């Protein structure tokens, strides 16, 4: 069974097509057609709905916008699902809806329910105590997953500012504790035929053993596209979202240990606290709804050559823990990617966690993403450089690149040639010559091979230039040398 609340109605599902998305279920089974299908691939936001989940630290609710078109029904278990139909109260529009009317934020209206739901998630987030001024940046961030093709964004941003700057308690605030109680009262489920919800490593191992063709699913922001874009039928799905080892986030004095099923939104503060340099890359990874669902583990296990986090993990010398329920083994991330979309996972194994070393003092890290759009776009090239300089000499350089080879790659030739050299212009030029011929990227819709090669060389030069202004004693000594 899968159990959740649809607004305040408890829903228990014991039989459903395991490839059914939340959007299909809403529109076709429940005839709730306010949520629209624009792209079916997480790119437009017309299908945005909100999931409310118990926040264990204060026993309240967290509200997150997600793309229902690429979310399987397993993601709903134990949560409250809210759609645009649920916002009004006794025929009164919710403040976010009223603001869209007041500010003329809608023309054809196709995108409007999705925008309204992203605004609603921001409204609830801010009503939970954010005292920061609401500015255009915060709003763009909250609406980063929503496209509008006819109104233009200014009236929508104005509407968001009106509604979300000082959010008053709404009907959801009044019923929050009742909803928490109702969520707690939902049964502890195992899923339905074809859609499994294991609660432990042992259960996960048993299911993988029983269904060798099954696919693991975390946030489904990659996997669901196989259904909605490639029209595949996935035979069995096993969710990783309820296995504790895959959902924990811990820090010891040497590592951040990030469970494979932890979402970007959940890991963001911890990772950025250690590596603030990753802020731009992380806030440009997909959109807010994608980061609310997508996981670091999914990004690694998917083994895409254009995933954004593998280059970061390569440059940070991260280690992966692979598990089969009986034994686990540790593998440096660079040994995980074998060939295009082929990984070192053995039959019966899964990715349990990702271990990122704590920051080394005096290191200079930069992560660059080159894509056609700032938000919600896949990289044409991703380049990450992690440098340590001691007494003006490079003591260590680790690199990670995406979009330039069949797998996420380091450039060993560059790392070896630069380590031990004085960190000066000549060394930078030496690196440029190496990078110019280090990879043989392909031409595709995102970029030509030559553009990608040029980008690598230019980003390396940019890294060197930026390091000259870095607030780091060793590097400043160089700058004035
Ligand atoms: C609109 C849109 C924008 C995107 N933008 C970006 C972007 O900017 N940068 C980027 O890098 N990616 C982007 N992506 C891709 C995707 O969001 C990420 O790769 C995300 O991290 C995938 O995580 P997930 O939890 O959704 O994975 P899922 O889709 O659940 O799984 C992905 C794959 O990993 C496997 N898997 C999952 N967990 C495990 C595990 N524990 N062990 C073994 N195998 C496992 C699954 O079987 C599947 O094959 C985007 C996707 C969309 C739809
Ligand atoms: S329909 Fe476009 S994001 Fe879902
Ligand atoms: S109002 Fe028409 S697409 Fe936004």
Question: What would you say this structure looks like, in words?
Answer:
Among the domains are: 2-184, Ubiquitin-like (UB roll), CATH 3.10.20; 363-480, 2-Layer Sandwich (Enolase-like, domain 1), CATH 3.30.390. 34% of the residues lie in helices and 20% in strands. It has helices spanning 22-29, 95-102, 112-127, 136-142, 153-164, 171-184, 201-210, 223-228, 264-274, 279-283, 288-293, 296-302, 309-315, 412-418, 425-436, 449-468, 473-480; strands at residues 2-6, 9-13, 48-55, 60-67, 80-82, 191-192, 195-196, 215-217, 237-239, 249-251, 255-259, 319-323, 328-332, 337-339, 342-343, 350-357, 363-370, 381-390, 393-402. It is an alpha+beta fold and 481 residues long. The strands form five sheets. It has a five-stranded mixed beta sheet. The protein has a five-stranded antiparallel beta sheet with strand order 10-11-16-12-13, with helices on one face.
- What is the CATH superfamily classification of the domain at 2-184? Beta-grasp domain
Bound molecules: flavin-adenine dinucleotide, FE2/S2 (inorganic) cluster
CATH topology of the domain at 2-184: Ubiquitin-like (UB roll)
**How many individual β-strands?**
19
Architecture per CATH nomenclature, i.e. the level-2 architecture of the domain at 2-184? Roll
Portion in strands: 15-25%
């Amino acid at each position: 069974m899968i159990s959740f609340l649809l607004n305040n109605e408890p829903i228990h599902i014991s039989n459903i097509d395991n490839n059914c998305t939340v959007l299909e279920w809403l529109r076709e089974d429940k005839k709730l057609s306010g949520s629209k299908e624009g792209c079916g691939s997480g790119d437009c936001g017309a299908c945005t709905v909100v999931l409310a989940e118990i926040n264990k630290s204060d026993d309240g609710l967290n509200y997150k916008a997600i793309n229902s078109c690429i979310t399987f029904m397993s993601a709903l278990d134990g949560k409250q699902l809210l759609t645009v139909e649920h916002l009004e109260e006794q025929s009164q529009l919710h403040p976010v809806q009223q603001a869209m009317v007041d500010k003329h934020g809608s023309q054809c209206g196709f995108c409007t329910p999705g925008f309204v739901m992203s605004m609603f998630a921001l409204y609830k987030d801010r009503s939970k105590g954010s005292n920061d001024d609401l500015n255009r940046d915060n709003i763009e961030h909250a609406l980063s997953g929503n496209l509008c093709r006819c109104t233009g964004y200014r009236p929508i941003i104005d509407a968001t500012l009106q509604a979300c700057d000082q959010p008053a308690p709404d009907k959801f605030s009044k019923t929050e504790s009742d909803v928490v109680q109702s969520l707690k009262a939902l049964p502890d489920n195992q899923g339905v035929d074809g859609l499994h919800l294991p609660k432990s490593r042992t259960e996960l191992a048993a299911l993988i053993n029983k269904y060798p063709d099954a696919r693991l699913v975390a946030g489904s922001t990659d996997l669901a596209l196989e259904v909605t874009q490639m029209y595949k039928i996935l035979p069995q799905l096993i969710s990783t979202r309820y296995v504790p080892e895959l959902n924990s986030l811990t820090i010891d004095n040497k590592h951040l240990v990030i469970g494979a099923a932890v979402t970007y939104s959940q890991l963001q503060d911890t990772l950025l606290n250690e590596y603030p340099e990753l802020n731009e890359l992380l806030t440009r990874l997909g959109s807010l709804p994608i980061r609310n669902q997508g996981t670091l583990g999914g990004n690694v296990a998917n083994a895409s050559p254009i995933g954004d986090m593998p280059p970061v993990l390569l440059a940070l010398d991260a280690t992966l823990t692979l598990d089969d329920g009986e034994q686990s083994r540790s593998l440096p991330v660079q040994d995980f990617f074998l060939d295009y979309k082929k990984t070192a996972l053995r039959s019966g194994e899964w990715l349990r966690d990702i271990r990122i070393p704590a920051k080394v003092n005096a290191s200079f890290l930069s992560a660059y993403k080159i894509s056609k759009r700032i938000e919600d776009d896949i990289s044409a090239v991703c380049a990450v450089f992690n440098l340590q300089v001691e007494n003006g000499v490079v003591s260590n350089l680790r690199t990670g690149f995406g979009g330039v080879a069949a797998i996420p790659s380091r450039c060993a030739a560059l790392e070896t040639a630069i380590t031990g050299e004085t960190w000066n212009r000549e060394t930078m030029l030496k690196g440029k010559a190496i990078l110019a011929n280090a990879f043989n990227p392909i031409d595709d819709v995102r970029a030509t091979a030559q553009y990608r090669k040029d980008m690598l060389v230019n980003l390396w030069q940019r890294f060197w230039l930026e390091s000259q202004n870095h607030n780091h004693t060793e590097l400043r000594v160089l700058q004035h040398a």
